[in-house]
Design goal:
By secondary structure, the protein is α+β, with helices and mostly antiparallel strands. The protein folds into two domains: 44 residues; 109 residues, no CATH class. It is 24% helix and 40% strand. The chain is built from two helices and eleven strands. Strand 4 and strand 5 form a beta hairpin. The longest helix has 32 residues. The radius of gyration is 26 Å and the shape is globular. The chain starts with a strand and ends in a 5-residue tail after the last strand.
């Protein structure tokens, strides 16, 4: 019978030794996954979303800004989809509410689009920004041509509480 030194202990070689090594390897892997998950969770909790409200100003060739009720001008940024929406001239002058976080006193990064962080106020109610093609009946969440017929989509503000 052969003996294998493993972690300072002597163990028998054979099926049990291989099973022990495989089990310990998978346990280390699981422990690393748990540690990585906790680190991500802690990082996510440190940046709590806040809201910024005010009048949206769309600028050609420059980032959009929002003028808050206390007359501070804040430059807006976000992911690619959000930047396209913020560049849509049809939204210029709307009162908006955006969730995200401040990266500086006068710079605000809007949360990722999949969380629907950008709402506009129409007739006193908050609405979700979307775009609709009347010809193809296709909804999009970025301005531009319809993915089907290539005609320009219409701005279509939706009640965020309705599916």
């Amino acid at each position: 019978m052969a003996v294998l030194a493993f972690g300072g202990k002597k163990t028998n070689t054979g099926k049990n030794a291989c099973a022990t090594v495989a089990t310990m390897g998978s346990m280390r892997y699981c422990l690393c996954l748990v540690a990585a998950g906790l680190a991500c969770l802690m990082a996510a909790e440190t940046q709590q979303s806040v809201s910024v409200r005010g009048k949206l100003s769309v600028h050609e060739g420059a980032p959009a800004t929002v003028e808050t009720p206390d007359h501070k001008v804040v430059t807006l940024d976000g992911d690619t989809v959000t930047r396209k929406v913020l560049g849509d001239e049809r939204l210029n002058g709307f009162e908006i509410e955006a969730r995200g976080h401040f990266t500086a006193a006068d710079r605000f990064t809007i949360d990722p689009t999949h969380t629907h962080p950008l709402l506009v106020r129409q007739n006193g109610k908050l609405k979700l920004v979307s775009y609709w093609c009347d010809i193809c009946s296709i909804r999009a969440y970025t301005p531009g041509p319809c993915v089907c017929c290539q005609r320009e989509t219409n701005l279509d503000l939706l009640d965020p509480d309705k599916p």
